Fold each of these.
Amino acid sequence: MLSAKLSPTVTDMIRFDHSHVLLTFHQYTLDKSPKVRKALADTICNALEIHATLEEEIFYPAIRLLNGEEPVIQKSVPEHDEMRSIIAELRMTDPKEVRHQELVMELMRDVIHHVADEETVLLAEAERMMDKSRLRELGTQMTKRRMQLVAPKAGRIAADTIVGFSGSTVAMVAGVATAICAVRHFTKAKHAAHVH
Ligand SMILES: [Fe+2]
Ligand SMILES: [Fe+2]
């Protein structure tokens, strides 16, 4: 089921996560109800936390082996920590307050900047210096770890996605796909202990 030969590469997985979170940010507009904006913010917070952990545990160590002096890798974890502090405040903020929108915009600005550095420097470097089988092997590791991280929150992630993307026709397709993915991850995670 998780054969490294069939796994997407780690770099494609990272790109997919980036696209998903940016798509979610783009749904956050003031014409949405506070309930929908809260669900979107929760979707963003959970997705970023899981993504940051996966990069720190699997992708960044592999990049450091190639070139630990790279300035982008050196600032990556501090930037994740800055996002984590915005996430912590965002979770405690009422979506009816102006501060909620300010925090989402602050987080989006940080994420766009961080993602630009990762995609144009780290992913490019990884694909230049690692062969496809290594990139797929890291992709497999990332999938296994993602299942463990998603499992405890799978129901919540699916529910937030459905509320957050309600009323959005184009994004709903991606949103529903994500919800289905989360449920699948949850189901698969029950068997994760048997996956080696
Ligand atoms: Fe990152
Ligand atoms: Fe990333």
Amino acid sequence: MNNRVDNVKKAIKYVTLSVCAVFTIVIVLFIIHVVNVQKYNEEWKTVSPNSSATSVLVDIHSRGGATDSWEKADTGLGTKLNAKIYDIVITNNAHSYIEDWRIRVNIRENCYINNGWCGTFEIHQFDTDGNELTQTVDLRNFNYDDLKINYHKAGQDLLIPLKDGDFLVYHPNPDESTGELPIKGTDEYSGTCTSGVIMYSLTGNIDFSDYEMLYKLNITIWDGTKGRLFIIAFAMLVISFLIIGTIFLVSVHFEGRLQSREKMLTDVFNICCGLADSRDYYSKGHSERVAGYSKMIAGKMGMDKGDCDLVYNAALIHNVGNVFVNEQILRKNGKLTSTEFEEVKSHTVRGAEILKSIENIPLAAEAAMFHHERYDGTGYPKGKKEDEIPLIARIVAVADAYDAMSNDRPYRNKLMRDRIREEFINNRGSQFDPEIVTAFLDIMGERNL
Ligand SMILES: [Fe+2]
């Protein structure tokens, strides 16, 4: 049972470590993703007439209404001019909003800019020597005295001359009520923004096909395939941690109950052990010591902690059958008669009889029944030999013999350490399993027994 609990705890540990490793990788990838999203949001993207991208579109065209174009004869320039309203239409087909934008229009023919809305116009004029005059103007709200660029006043109308090589940069109005900033994505609204400008020219059909729009798109970290994958990954990690936590809590609860049951079982074993040892003065503490040596041997032979504990418990009550043996016989100092010896030998079978009902520790009955068997088959009660004798019984036999030799008996004093080693070596393969003797001699050396 302990093994099963240990295995569950090991499994929880490995699964937790694996999930933590995946979590760490996801977090690192997520941080990289966040940095990339920030970089993406900060970079200016470009749209021009040659762009193949369709996420953001620009269309500059003249309005076609009856009042959207007119002729201006009183220009004061010695010529009539044709005026038109041109719409600058930005379409945002992306799901995210455009956080900032501007559009540069390169002038390819002589014309005049008269008015525009709702943002400001950054006007760049060049003279024949290449000298530049530039000024940013709000054409709906300006003061003539503030104009530093070339302009002409035709009645009430402002005419700012532009020619091939000059250019305009339109900056949208940051006031959200104008609808120019931000330009919402298709998920939120129409995703379009329309600005306007009034231009004068001789023909009234100004070519606006040479432009370049710069814009910043604001995507969130959860947008796109990567963003959705991270949502799924985090959701799965949270679920994984919840499952692991639940299994951990259940295992802790289960382990607590198991420990309580094991404590109860250990108490019963200790009572049985005490009863068995109490029948003979010289056996006091014998079973507990044998259990301890048996556990050491089991560990030396590579058994895991759970199996070592089982070996300990089984060895602890290997002599429980003594409670059925006449106390006078157990304490007799002289030589036993054959009848008395048969009575003593019966403690193996009688002990096994009552222990075979302990299903969780079948080793207990095996230890009780066979711990007086000898490796060469001359022991009792069944005369089994070598591997016919259960491993637990071969282990207990060595531990039992060591404890007997290392303690005083009514008929002899305890043996010295070297003599005990000699006994084990001499009886290796006859009384004892050679492999177990080797293990125990190592233990004696290591622990200075
Ligand atoms: Fe015994």
